[in-house]
Amino acid sequence: MKWLKVCRKDEIPERGGRAVLAGGSRIAVFRLSDGRVVAVEDRCPHKEGPLSDGLLTGATVICPMHHWKIDLESGNALPPDCGCVKTYETKVDDGIVWLRL
Amino acid sequence: METKKKLVMIGNGMAGMKAIEEIIDINPDLFDITVFGAERHPNYNRVLLSSVLAGEMTVEDIILNDEEWYRKNNITLHLGKPVVEIQRGYRKVVAADGTTAAYDCLVIATGSKPFILPLPGVDKEGVITFRDIYDCERMMEASASYRKAAVIGGGLLGLEAAKGLVNLGMEVTVIHDRKTLMNMQLDEVAGEMLRESLEEQGMRFRTSTLTKRILGDDRVRGLEFEDGSRLECDIVVMAVGIRPNKDLAEGARLFCNRGIVVNDYMQSITDPSVYAVGECVEHRGKTYGLVAPLFEQARILAYHITGQGLKTYTGSVVSTKLKVSGVDVFSAGDFEGNGSSDTVMYLDRKGGIYKKIVIKDERIIGAVLFGDTADGTRLFQMMQDGTDVSEQRSTLLFGNTMLGDAGHSGLAQVSMMSPDTIVCGCNGVTKKMIEDAVVKHGLTTRKEVTGCTKAAGSCGGCGPLVDQILVSILGSSFARSANAMPLCDCTELTHDEVKEEIRRRRLLTVGGAMRALEWKGEGCDTCRPALNYYVQSIWPKETSDDPASRLVNERMHANIQKDGTFSVVPRMYGGLTTPEELMRIARVASEYNVPAVKLTGGQRIDLLGIKKEDLTAVWRALGMESGYAYAKALRTVKTCVGSRWCRFGTQDSMGLGINLEKMLERVWAPAKLKLSVSGCPRNCAEASIKDLGIVGVDGGWEIYCGGNGGVRVRVAELLCTVRDADEVMEIAKAYVQLYREDAHYGERTSVWIERVGLDRVKRAVVDDPQSRGALAARLDEYIETLGEDPWKARIREEEERPGMKPIKIDARAVNE
Ligand SMILES: Cc1cc2nc3c(=O)[nH]c(=O)nc-3n(C[C@H](O)[C@H](O)[C@H](O)COP(=O)(O)OP(=O)(O)OC[C@H]3O[C@@H](n4cnc5c(N)ncnc54)[C@H](O)[C@@H]3O)c2cc1C
Ligand code: SF4
Ligand code: FES
Fold first, then answer.
1. Model pTM greater than 0.80?
2. Residues B98 and B200 reside in one and the same domain
3. Chain A residues contacting B, CB < 8 Å?
4. Cβ atoms of residues A27 and A40 within 8 Å
5. Can you tell me the distance from the alpha carbon of B64 to that of B16, in angstroms, rounded to the nearest whole number?
6. pLDDT, tens digit, for every residue of B387-407?
7. B-chain residue closest to A24, CA distance
8. Domain-ending residue, one of B219, B240, B261
9. What residue numbers bound the domain in which B182 lies?
């Protein structure tokens, strides 16, 4: 595991997400309304929808495909649905977003 | 004067009298009507006998038509006079007391008889069936002097009888031959849960038990079972099923099988002057024992007997609810399923909730609900309509949340229901009965409707549906009443209240509106896009778009597909294109390996399967404008070739279509907007299913509005007729602006017009020139604020800042 540089924080849209390809995996990084940056696997547990294209509300992303809600902190789908995505550690240093892989 | 035809009805029960009501509704002067009833009571609601027995209602409460009603409608009523013979040769009937009546048309509606097991001892005193008021009275009498009751039969009727007897203070044991209670309606899991919950209410059970004989001298003392064991009891209620009451018909040599066999018009197949309806009937090999299908039969009969066209009865699927308070059970169709079907299921044993839906070929074919039956009516409607549920599987079992937007999606459901659909299965209340009561007594709340019609008074499961019927009649006035639905779970406010606050308090951003209106959290995918639309449509000059509140399609200006790729549909005004455009499209399609190129229903070309990162490049290469095929905005103006080419054309439909599309392109709306223009009344551009459809006629244009060809087909209504194309443009502007200002977000024009009424639209757009002018001017002002084509804007942005490509982290760095 090590820290990898992703992009400048302002390259992620405000209250929005961005897809990141790292090795074989596709990761969604989000910029939350409180300024935090979080990252999860970019694949909805339902039918693999691209979560990076979802609508953000608080620390929850709503999948653009069939509206499952995924809690970005735990990676769990919110009831009534169930399923989960992998979460990744992130940090922002001097305006630069880092991802631990 | 012509003498009226004579109609004789045998049987004063639910199906027969429903048929009479329907006939009178169609034409009260057509027949001289005579009714024979074996019972001494005027027509009553048999379904509610269970409530009478359970002490929840009195006999007076369940009378449907009192004797006064018969008098008022000039119906000759013979109560307590069973008909004993039909003389078909003389076309007359004879009753037990010798009364006769001649007929031109005869209707047999004799219902059914309780089946009595041929057990030794069944003729003893204290053996009772459960069919009519008399039986009810006998049970109530017995409960005064005796303590122990046995009910043979653990079906719907047996359990309702048992519950009634428990309420009357008796010790009740239900004897059932199968392992599962209500095995005709429930699977094992639901049957088991039902048993547990009824045991809690004090009922006892002996399942998988066959009765051998009834013990006692003159009076019942007990039961003996096949295994030799015994049960002490003072009364025995026999509820093991019913048999169609066909003796009279058989005596008159009308062909009977299990019941009186009828054709699709409800006529006896032996004698077309004899009709039959209700439980005594066998239709296409099936007999029915529930009110809903019988009412359907009654309606068809009334149509045919009064000579109203050729509606046919083709059979019914049925649903059942058990009317025992505190236990909610719903069942419909094929609830077991088989190899070729699959099931969606939810089981919470501790919470006492079980839901199972059986699906075959993406259609619901059966359902069982236990504990929470609120969705029953909706699922049953979907089952009857054969709705494709492939998209909804994950939400099917949590359906009520889908009705959260002022009943909008529910309205579709309600308006699809025929007037005779039973809304309240418990009390046999139809949609029409509710509508009539609402109109006649000016009702405005669910509670009042219950008070008046008993709908939603028993299990309450149909409450949401009753609300929707209220909405459909009262429109926005109901939406403002206490029952109004909030916009979504994030707020208590309704759509209209939110809009009003945005206007009054000059709220200019989504976030600002949420803060000012005390939103819960940061909103959801229902309210954020709605707020984004409302602030911009109310304050067009003062606000800007909030991309974070747009769903993916509108944010990306392309349609997301199931594999995460996008589709691109460039605009082709009026459905016209040029060789140059086609060549560019072809080049893009081959250069980008576009997997599918398809013509859309809106007369343009769809490039499917484009990767997100290629979107801007594709747009650039196309050099065309966005067709907004992804947006709640103007989609297309479909045209026919009209007078420019067509030999029938009377007007230039292409020209007008192009002008309309140019005027309205990029105009956002509460929902998508589809227009069309046809050059003559042959209407090749299908104006009748468009939000705004224009049809050229000799010397002018007809303008239709509120049509829909999608989820729920609705034929557009005529808004007005005008003389020239300029007038069409003016009306179109005013209409679109009124819709933009007035409709709820997500509401198509069809639903909006149903809610507010065509009159209101006509007044604002057609009748009042001042209002029309003001609306059109407001649209013009708004159009001025619209920026450039979004694809062009994106292309430019992309040059400045690459925003849509995924960020790549070097694979080597990852793997090192
Ligand atoms: C306790 C109970 C609860 C029920 N609960 C429900 C429910 O929850 N939901 C539901 O959908 N259905 C329910 N049903 C069934 C429903 O009541 C019947 O399906 C419906 O009443 C049948 O209507 P019908 O007109 O065919 O027969 P009926 O209503 O039985 O009418 C037939 C009438 O014809 C009379 N008659 C018979 N022979 C003659 C003759 N020779 N001359 C003159 N008159 C004659 C009979 O006396 C009777 O009054 C229930 C039934 C009972 C008994
Ligand atoms: S609607 Fe009339 S004018 Fe247009 S193509 Fe059809 S027939 Fe011709
Ligand atoms: S793929 Fe995410 S909700 Fe279906």
1. no
2. no
3. 2, 4-7, 11, 13-16, 18-24, 26, 33, 46-50, 52-58, 62, 64-67, 80-81, 99, 101
4. yes
5. 12
6. 888 887 777 776 543 333 333
7. B811
8. B240
9. 127-240
